[in-house]
Write a structure and sequence with these properties.
single chain; 434 Repressor (Amino-terminal Domain); mainly alpha
């Protein structure tokens, strides 16, 4: 009998010891995709994004790479400002 039938994906990832890693990867992918989608929607190139952020195109590439987790909070704030948005985050505390 399969012990995973009926369990959630979160439960499975926790049992495998990779829940936090998977969650972190998913968050970074969502952030990268959000910036890429907004850039595409507005016709903003990577070069122009870098100019607006006052950084290098390599930094923009890191931002848009869903697997690169080495993006600073400062980069996220600058990127949001470059597309006319405000970056925010939320910390939820367990009760």
């Amino acid at each position: 009998m399969n012990k995973y039938i009926g369990s959630s994906l979160d439960d499975f990832l926790k049992e495998e010891g990779i829940y936090e890693e998977a969650k972190e990867a998913a968050i970074k992918k969502i952030i990268a995709d959000s910036f890429a989608n907004e850039m595409k929607k507005t016709g903003l190139t990577k070069t122009e994004m870098a100019r607006r952020m006052q950084t290098s195109r390599t930094a923009v590439d890191r931002l848009l790479d869903g697997e690169n987790k080495a993006v600073t909070l400062n980069t996220l704030i600058k990127a949001a400002q470059a597309i006319g948005r405000e970056f925010s985050f939320r910390i939820e505390f367990a009760e």
